[in-house]
Hints:
The protein is built from 6 helices and 2 strands; from the N terminus they run αααβαααβ. By secondary structure, the chain is mainly α.
Amino acid sequence: MLCVNCGVALYEGAAFCAACGREVGAGMAQAPPRKVAYAGFWLRLLAWVIDSLALAIPSVLVVAVGFTLLGLELPPPDAPFGTLPPMRTLLPMEALFLSVHWLYYALMESSPWQGTLGKRALGVAVTDVHGKRISFARASARFLGKLVSSLTFFAGYAMAGFTERKQALHDIFTDCIVVRMP
Length: 182
């Protein structure tokens, strides 16, 4: 059943709408359901490309500053090709890189914009399954879920092309959807 006032789905046996607070009466007419336009795989991939470009400069700056402040070093220029930095360098660098990305995605998706710069540019937003803005905690969990989606050889992302509500694995974990904005 949907709220007559705001159209949000009501929980079974609810006395009040969680979104607008209107009392749910037994004889209350049901609001017509809204047609939701989900953002599909290719639109989301394009948003990710835009976000990757937007994150490139801040990521390099944060890692460079981190290297300087932590006194980390890369392999010398005369090292053989493919020589990896020592673990004492690699792990902090990855932690800094991951922190920049986590804060970008979690802060932007839980903000009133409900999406990153790439999503905003393409007119899509991240919401919960009821169409409401997600919290910072849920956006953080969604970001961590993206790591799981990546560990499945990106099959978790590909799911957005095949599921009914165009949800990737990390969206299913966190009860989120990505929708086109009207």
